[in-house]
């Protein structure tokens, strides 16, 4: 399959996802600010040609953490993806790698977006520097607390009404926004017609909306302090009142992450970074 056809499939898949009952959060940073990559040196952009697929984070020299729904529509063609690190511009600068291997969580549920977590293994390790560093992940079973202040960045659309199938509508420069963790009972009440999983998901945002992650930011890291506690997963809209973002709780998957990485690399070598955020 050639790249133009695959891009068309990706665009159609994105539209379908955004029109289903979950309006999958392949979306944007709303109400944020332009930031330098040095503020989030773990952040990567995953693209197919010049089309934004998702965000992600570097957790080891050759490993990227992201969301399963980012890869669902392009399974079998992940080798065509490009991963860029170390640049606030999604089209230029930094280090670029292709994908050697990928996996979705074996229990991923694409209907409810449960276990929405995945891994990419790069063809070559990233080269560390001031703008390229790993992010630490929390210990197994760690859960963020309500009112923890987290940070999300990405290259998603800056207006939810823009045509998401046009690469030119996605910003070239990186944006970021602070979002507090919300109490699960509150979020579950606001999303009473949808399924949330308290053991593996959490919500972050503001009751009044206005600031949010949205189309294109999926898979990106939600960072509290110096560790990544969440992955941008889904939401009903962008920055609307009482419709916060839903995040995969990374701490519930540390064992799976480490076991998967060890299985592919065959040893602990290469699983730790020389430089962390």
Question: Can you walk me through this structure?
Answer:
The structure is a single chain. This protein has 277 residues and is of the alpha+beta class. The protein has one domain: Thrombin, subunit H. 13% of the residues lie in helices and 27% in strands. The chain has three helices and 13 strands; from the N terminus they run H-E-E-E-E-E-E-E-E-E-H-E-E-E-E-H. The strands form two sheets. A six-stranded antiparallel beta barrel has the order 8-9-10-13-12-11. The chain has a six-stranded antiparallel β-barrel with strand order 2-3-4-7-6-5. It is globular, with a radius of gyration of 17 Å. Residues 29-262 form the Peptidase S1 domain. One of its GO terms (biological process) is proteolysis. One of its GO terms (cellular component) is extracellular region.
């Amino acid at each position: 399959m050639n790249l133009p056809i695959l891009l068309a499939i990706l665009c159609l898949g994105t539209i379908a996802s955004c029109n289903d009952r979950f309006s999958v959060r392949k979306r944007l940073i709303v109400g944020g600010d332009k930031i330098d990559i040095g503020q989030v040196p773990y952040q990567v952009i995953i693209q197919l040609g010049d089309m934004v697929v998702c965000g992600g984070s570097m957790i080891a020299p050759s490993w990227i953490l992201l969301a399963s729904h980012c890869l669902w529509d392009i399974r079998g063609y992940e080798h065509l993806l490009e991963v860029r690190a170390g640049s606030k511009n999604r089209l230029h600068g930094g280090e670029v790698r292709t994908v050697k291997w990928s996996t979705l969580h074996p229990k991923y549920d694409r209907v409810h977006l449960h276990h929405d977590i995945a891994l990419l293994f790069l063809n070559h390790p990233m080269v560390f520097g001031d703008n390229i560093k790993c992010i630490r992940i929390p210990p197994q079973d760690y859960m963020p607390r309500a009112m923890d202040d987290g940070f999300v960045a990405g290259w998603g659309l800056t207006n939810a009404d823009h045509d998401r199938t046009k690469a030119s509508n996605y910003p070239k420069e990186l944006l970021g926004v602070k979002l507090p963790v919300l109490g699960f009972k509150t979020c579950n009440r606001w999303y009473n017609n949808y399924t949330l999983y308290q053991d593996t998901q959490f919500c972050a945002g503001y009751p009044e909306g206005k600031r949010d992650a949205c189309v294109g930011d999926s898979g990106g890291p939600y960072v509290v302090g110096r560790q990544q506690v969440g992955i941008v997963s889904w939401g009903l809209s962008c920055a609307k009142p009482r419709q916060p973002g839903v995040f995969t709780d990374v701490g519930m998957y540390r064992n799976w992450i480490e076991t998967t990485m060890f299985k592919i690399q065959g040893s602990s070598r290469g699983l730790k970074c020389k430089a962390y955020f």
